[in-house]
Amino acid sequence: MRFLVTNDDGIDSPFLHHLVGALRAEGHELCVAAPRVEQSWIGAAKSRIRSIESRAEDHGLGCSTWVIDGTPSDCVNIALDHLVPSDWKPNGVISGINVGQNASLGFIIASGTVSGAFEGVLHGLPAVSLSQDLTSEIYEHLRLKGGKLEGPMLETLRVSSALAARMAPRLIADTRANSFIVHNLNFPHPCRTETRMVRTVPAHVIIPRLFSPADDDGTHRMVFRYGDDLSPTNLLTDRAALSKGLISHSILDYTRLGVPE
Questions:
Q1: Residue 167: what pLDDT?
Q2: Residues 6 or more apart from 220 whose CB is under 8 A from it?
Q3: Quick one: DSSP state of residue 246?
Q4: pLDDT, tens digit, for every residue of 75-124?
Q5: What is the chain's alpha carbon radius of gyration, rounded to the nearest angstrom?
Q6: CA dist 76 to 46, 92, 166, Å?
Q7: Is pTM beyond 0.70 here?
Q8: Are 132 and 100 in contact (CB under 8 A)?
Q9: Which residues does 173 contact at the CB level (< 8 Å), separation at least 6?
Q10: 3-state secondary structure at position 56
Q11: DSSP symbol at 156
Q12: What is the 3-state secondary structure of 82-138?
């Protein structure tokens, strides 16, 4: 199969590189269009009032690769409309693997990874978003301190990438065009070859108090928190699946927005 791959962590993210390697190992044809720099929590933002540069660059991915100085939504739009060869029609869009989970309503709406997949949906293509749960200590080691990916986290990413490279194509193959569906997968930490995937719904999470009070200079700063889970106890949510060490698969059907019960 043929896939356009994007992410929101940027072209140099090892999580993207591991996913691309796993997809290629399964025999799939790929094109990659990724942001030049991290675009986390950007949601479905598009660069409306500035010009956007796209460049074909070799980042060792073994496939056609474009680096775009915009959002994940910019990347997918520009790639599908202007960069991917006209005789190379992708079967779907795969976005990720994100550094950290994209589970719960509070995170899904804000996610650049999920929104990159959604842009594929807006082009009539099936799409999958992929995210890797990790501990706050690992996140700080990787993102805040520029640490190396190593040890158990590296092994988990290798396993998650291999599983994603088998799961995502099957989900795309089973999803009709113009369906307005994104398959949102979250992989637990640790993730093992025998880890099961279960159907879930997004957790009902609210996230108040996400920014600090104004400092002396009048500025506010994000204070990251996972939010408050208000989910009914009878739901198997994405957050609950991750806490049980399972792969969460939520089907985000955008045709259900505003539909009365």
A1: 98
A2: 211, 212, 213, 214
A3: -
A4: 999 999 999 999 999 999 999 999 999 999 999 999 999 999 999 999 99
A5: 18
A6: 11, 11, 22
A7: yes
A8: yes
A9: 1, 91
A10: strand
A11: H
A12: HHCCCCCCCCEEEEEEEEECCCCHHHHCCCHHHHHHHHHHHCCCCEEEEEECCCHHH
2-6, strands of its sheet edge to edge: 54-56, 64-68, 29-35, 2-6, 92-99, 127-132, 181-187, 247-253, 197-200
How high does pLDDT run on average in the chain?
Answer: 96
Residue 152 and residue 119 in contact, taking contact as beta carbons nearer than 8 Å:
no
Q: φ, ψ for residue 41 (rounded to 5)?
A: 60, 30
Token representation of residue 49: 């009032």
Tokens at 44, concatenated: 């479905």
Structure tokens at 118: 């959604």
> pLDDT tens across 26-52, in order?
999 999 999 999 999 999 999 999 999
Comparing CA positions, the residue from 247, 73, 98, 83 lying closest to residue 171 is 247
